[in-house]
């Protein structure tokens, strides 16, 4: 090693440069902090303990703790294998995929789709969809801010920050009830300046699992109308929350019925298990077709210098599945299986904790919905979970229910009980 | 007229206002009205009389969830309230189209507020992309003679897209293995990052052995360039990127959107249809110290004109002299000469001098993986520690852009490059592709020389390398190519030889000669 360094130093000196050139251009580059979510899995993988449990990242696992590739996906892959065309997709992505995706969010027979009022582009999963929107918001509403719920998926803050859109927060989670702080939420909505931009989780709020009820959504929608606010929905779990995609899109339906011109980020990472394929969609409901065409063209302008056009494989899988009635039926069945297993684990975890005689209330585990549970554990308690019990989760106390199995639920319950019983 | 119960405290009305904008689309919205409210609605009463009535029990059921607050009608609508105008009556006719009114099934007092104007009212139509828009125009053309020499995507002699055999084999392997679809790490597939750096620098290269290269999988060339641009913006605020004149159109967009200032260095000399070497050196010298110099590793896009090895040495000299940072865009490794190593020689020359540099790679062309979006950004640093830190910051840029990159293309590359048999097969296929392009260049040159009575020197076609040829045709002449001859190309005079067959060379020669000599 030293020998090689010696050689390159000499080469540089020969070429007329002193040791000055050895100092890097990158001297001011600090090591970045580890991503709080993805860093958990890294730590988990590095742990040699046989008892370790990963309830960190939100990727579905079956009851054996194994990643799952849906049958409908495997079948779709078989059908598209040997495809003779790897040509660039248009900048807006696969038209087929986008059409099918809009039906999921806006309704199978949506007038908005028929009237071509939706500007929609294929995006790099939910992250990419949110980022396209944030950049679009910055470009066309440069004076606007984004209101983000507290808490939210950590990457939301990164996205709007890198898009240079200033952020405000609004109340969402009520730590005492481990439910929705509806009164404060409504206050924040009312007190925000008219015409503010709000980020809403359509269903299965990440990280809390706490969703507004249907009645509450209607009130939120009404108040948004009064204030002229813009609603941007991040819908990463359609189908995954209740097992029924139509039901999971209810909040969006309410807003559409009330006449809002909304934006939606959709992702197939969880509900189709296409995590690594990065498939999603950004849509903006416009006043008319002409505006939708203009908006779409501008979204493409943002995509072009970011990645030119989106990846094809995932899009082909999605459109193959959703375009075939049999495969679509299979998908709906498989999504329900995943959702049901999660709901089953919620019940099991709660029952285990209650059986252990925990003095605390664990109702919230079954009240909350979707992949995540906001346990209420403090960062210090989380650290104990990791250090003493080899249980990996994010320090905000978020548990990914997908990582719980019949095999580890009692171990997990025991650990939670141990760290929290003296609280 | 309508029952008292229809106007009780919890009554729900929908209000229709005609909004005077150019967008005449109206929607319905149900808003609650309290007893104190109706005075706001007085102007609407006459309109109410024209409407049908909601049965009272229907109203009760729809009222449950609504907060009864007075609706401040005046504040919330930018448009005028234009009741009783012809707009309104035309709306009433349109009303049946409204998706959520369901007026067919039951009568209701039905007034819908035209929602406040879209937030994005001011959004104008973006111009079509100058490169990708060409293919769109080509597809719309019905002529039998049409020829697509626009986007740089390889075609066979039959002008069909080409999926490499090694890619098909790799995909079959992957299908058989039944791999999962879990998230990649933010920096991408480790196996891919390893082979891509080795392919670029050579497996035993000191920069790799000393772990001085920060490699992050990116979304093909574009995505990798964008990560680098964001890194430059963050850590070298104010530093400029020097780009060749001309260069790939999207380079400017990338630096613009990343908010990195850029300026051009002379590159193409129209007089010689070759490299303006003195201009290039001069402009690089004149730039402020510590600028980034964007260089095309091989097969310059759009001109096809590459520096000679001697010229590369001189370019490296002046870059070192001015303390600039070289930034290579390598989109055609293997595709230019047919040899992966030969096409990487410019990058390796700079690395051998111990310079720190950036390199964006793409597998779109050389592995035909266009739509899979697979590439990488490599940052060669003077120490392993710096490389680790740089890599962590690249990840921080990627996370709020797309979280982690797509798996499919990365696995294909890792499988092809990582398997000796497939790797060799790939090299053979690449030689075939590059060979076909060389043959087409020869045939085009022969056709032009034979047909052109004016004795113009067309040898630049043979001297240029890679997928593209810069014909020297002006914008107007390029338009003539399209309008008269149905030959689709970019307006800068660039033709993609990858889209040309031997069979079409004579036709193309006719078109070029005509456009060149008869159009000005």
Present the secondary structure layout.
The complex is a heterodimer of chains A (423) and B (520).
Chain A: H1 2-14, H2 38-46, E1 53-54, H3 71-80, H4 95-106, H5 111-114, E2 118-123, H6 125-140, E3 146-150, H7 154-162, E4 167-171, E5 173-174, E6 179-180, H8 182-191, E7 197-201, H9 214-227, E8 230-235, H10 245-248, H11 250-257, E9 263-267, E10 280-285, H12 289-307, H13 312-322, H14 325-355, H15 363-367, E11 372-374, H16 379-389, E12 391-392, E13 398-400, H17 409-420
Parallel strand pairs in A: 1-12, 3-4, 3-7, 7-8, 8-9
Antiparallel strand pairs in A: 2-10, 5-6, 9-10, 11-13
Chain B: E1 12-14, E2 30-32, H1 38-41, H2 45-49, H3 56-63, H4 73-76, H5 86-94, H6 132-140, E3 147-148, H7 165-177, H8 190-201, H9 206-209, E4 213-218, H10 220-235, E5 241-245, H11 249-257, E6 262-266, E7 268-269, E8 274-275, H12 277-286, E9 292-296, H13 309-321, E10 325-330, H14 340-343, H15 345-352, E11 357-362, E12 375-380, H16 384-402, H17 407-418, H18 420-451, H19 460-463, E13 468-470, H20 475-485, E14 487-488, E15 494-496, H21 505-518
Parallel strand pairs in B: 3-14, 5-6, 5-9, 9-10, 10-11
Antiparallel strand pairs in B: 1-2, 4-12, 7-8, 11-12, 13-15
Mean pLDDT of chain B, rounded to whole units?
A: 81
Please bin the fraction of helical residues of chain B.
Answer: 40-55%
Biggest chain pair interface: A-B, 115 and 109 residues
Cα-atom radius of gyration of chain B: 31 Å
Q: How are strands sequenced across the largest beta sheet of chain B?
A: 4-12-11-10-9-5-6
SSE succession of chain A: HHEHHHEHEHEEEHEHEHHEEHHHHEHEEH
**Main pleated-sheet profile of chain A:** 7 strands, mixed
Within CATH, the superfamily of the largest domain in chain A carries the name Type I PLP-dependent aspartate aminotransferase-like (Major domain)
Q: Can you tell me the CATH class of the largest domain in chain A?
A: Alpha Beta
Taken from the alpha-carbon principal axes, the silhouette of chain B is: globular
Corresponding CATH architecture of the domain at 183-418 in chain B: 3-Layer(aba) Sandwich
- Separate helix tally of chain B: 21
Give, in spatial order, the strands making up the sheet with the most strands of chain A.
2-10-9-8-7-3-4
Rg measurement of chain A, Å: 24 Å
Report how far apart the termini of chain B are. 77 Å
Strand residue percentage of chain A: 5-15%
The total tally of domains of chain A equals 2
């Amino acid at each position: 090693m030293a020998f090689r360094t010696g050689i390159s130093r000499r080469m540089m000196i020969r070429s007329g440069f002193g040791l000055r050139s050895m100092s890097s251009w990158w001297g001011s580059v600090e090591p970045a902090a580890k991503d709080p979510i993805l860093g958990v899995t890294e730590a988990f993988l590095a742990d040699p303990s046989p008892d370790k449990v990963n309830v960190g990242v939100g990727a579905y696992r079956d009851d054996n703790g194994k990643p799952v590739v849906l049958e409908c996906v495997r079948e779709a892959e078989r059908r598209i294998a040997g495809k003779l065309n790897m040509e660039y997709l248009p900048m807006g992505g696969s038209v087929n995929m986008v059409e099918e995706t809009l039906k999921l969010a806006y309704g199978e027979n949506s007038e908005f789709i028929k009237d071509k009022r939706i500007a929609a582009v294929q995006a790099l999963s939910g992250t990419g969809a949110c980022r396209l929107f944030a950049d679009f918001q910055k470009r066309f509403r440069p004076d606007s801010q984004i209101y983000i719920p507290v808490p939210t998926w950590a990457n939301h803050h990164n996205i709007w920050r890198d898009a240079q859109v200033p952020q405000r927060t609004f109340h969402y989670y009520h730590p005492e009830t481990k439910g929705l702080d509806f009164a404060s939420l409504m206050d924040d909505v009312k007190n925000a300046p008219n015409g503010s931009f709000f980020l809403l989780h359509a269903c299965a709020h990440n990280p809390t699992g706490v969703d507004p009820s249907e009645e509450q959504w209607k009130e939120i929608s009404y108040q948004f109308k009064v204030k002229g606010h813009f609603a941007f929905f991040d819908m990463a779990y359609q189908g995954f929350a209740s097992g029924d995609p139509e039901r999971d899109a209810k909040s969006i339906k309410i807003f559409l019925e009330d006449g809002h011109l909304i934006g939606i980020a959709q992702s197939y990472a969880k509900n189709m298990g296409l995590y690594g394929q990065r498939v999603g969609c950004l849509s903006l409901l416009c006043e008319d077709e002409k505006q939708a065409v203009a908006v779409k063209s501008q979204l493409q302008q943002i995509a072009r210098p970011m990645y030119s056009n989106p990846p094809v494989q995932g899009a082909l899988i999605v459109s193959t599945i959703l375009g075939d009635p049999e495969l679509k039926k299979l998908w709906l069945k498989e999504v329900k299986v995943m959702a049901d297993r999660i709901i089953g684990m919620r019940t099991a975890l709660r029952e285990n904790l209650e059986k252990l005689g925990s003095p605390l209330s664990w109702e919230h585990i079954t009240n909350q919905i979707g992949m995540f549970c906001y346990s209420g554990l403090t960062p210090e308690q989380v650290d104990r979970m990791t250090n003493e019990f080899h249980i990996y989760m994010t320090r905000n106390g978020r548990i990914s229910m997908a990582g719980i199995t019949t095999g580890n639920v009692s171990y997990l319950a025991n650990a939670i009980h141990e760290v929290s019983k003296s609280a | 007229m309508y029952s008292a119960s229809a106007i009780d405290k919890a009554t729900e009305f929908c209000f229709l206002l005609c909004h005077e904008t150019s967008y005449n689309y109206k929607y319905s919205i149900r808003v609650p009205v309290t007893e104190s409210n109706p005075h706001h609605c007085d102007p609407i009463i006459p309109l109410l009389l024209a409407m049908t009535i909601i049965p009272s029990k229907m109203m009760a059921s729809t009222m449950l969830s609504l907060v009864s607050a007075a609706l401040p009608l005046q504040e919330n609508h930018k448009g005028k309230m234009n009741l009783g105008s012809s707009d309104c009556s035309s709306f009433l006719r349109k009303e049946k189209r409204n998706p959520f009114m369901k007026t067919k099934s039951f009568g209701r007092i039905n007034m819908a507020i035209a929602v406040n104007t879209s937030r994005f009212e001011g959004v104008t139509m973006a111009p079509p992309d100058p490169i990708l828009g060409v293919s769109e125009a080509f597809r719309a053309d019905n002529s039998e003679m049409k020829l697509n020499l626009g986007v740089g995507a390889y075609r066979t002699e039959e002008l069909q897209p080409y999926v490499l055999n090694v890619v098909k084999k790799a995909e079959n392997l992957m299908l058989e293995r039944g791999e999962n679809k879990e998230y990649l790490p933010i920096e991408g597939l480790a196996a891919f990052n390893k082979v891509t750096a080795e392919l670029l620098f050579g497996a035993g290269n000191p920069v790799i052995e000393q772990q001085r290269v920060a490699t992050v999988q990116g979304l093909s060339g574009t995505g990798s360039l964008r990560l680098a641009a964001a890194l430059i913006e963050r850590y070298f605020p104010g530093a400029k990127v020097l780009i060749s004149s001309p260069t790939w159109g999207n380079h400017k967009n990338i630096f613009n959107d990343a908010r990195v200032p850029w300026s051009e260095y002379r590159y193409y000399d129209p007089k010689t249809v070759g490299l303006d070497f003195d201009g290039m050196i001069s402009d690089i010298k004149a730039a402020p110290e510590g600028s980034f110099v964007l260089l095309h590793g091989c097969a310059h896009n759009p001109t096809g004109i590459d520096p000679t090895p001697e010229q590369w040495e001189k370019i490296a000299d002046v870059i070192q002299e001015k303390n600039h940072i070289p930034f290579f865009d390598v989109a055609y490794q293997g595709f230019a000469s047919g040899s992966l190593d030969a096409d990487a020689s410019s990058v390796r020359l700079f690395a051998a001098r111990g310079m720190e540099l950036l390199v964006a790679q793409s597998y779109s062309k050389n592995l035909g993986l266009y739509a899979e979006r697979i590439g990488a950004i490599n940052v060669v640093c003077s120490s392993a520690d710096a490389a680790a830190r740089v890599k962590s910051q690249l990840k921080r840029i990627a996370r709020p852009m797309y979280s982690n990159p797509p798996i499919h293309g990365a696995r294909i590359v890792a499988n092809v490059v990582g398997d000796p048999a497939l790797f060799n097969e790939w090299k053979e296929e690449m030689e075939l592709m590059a060979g076909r392009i060389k043959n087409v260049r020869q045939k085009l040159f022969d056709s032009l020389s034979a047909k052109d009575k004016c004795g113009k020197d067309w040898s630049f076609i043979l001297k240029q390398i890679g997928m593209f040829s810069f014909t020297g045709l002006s914008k107007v002449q390029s338009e003539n190519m399209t309008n008269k001859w149905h030959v689709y190309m970019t307006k800068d005079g660039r033709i993609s030889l990858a889209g040309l067959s031997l069979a079409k060379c004579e036709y193309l020669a006719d078109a070029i000669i005509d456009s060149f000599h008869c159009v000005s």
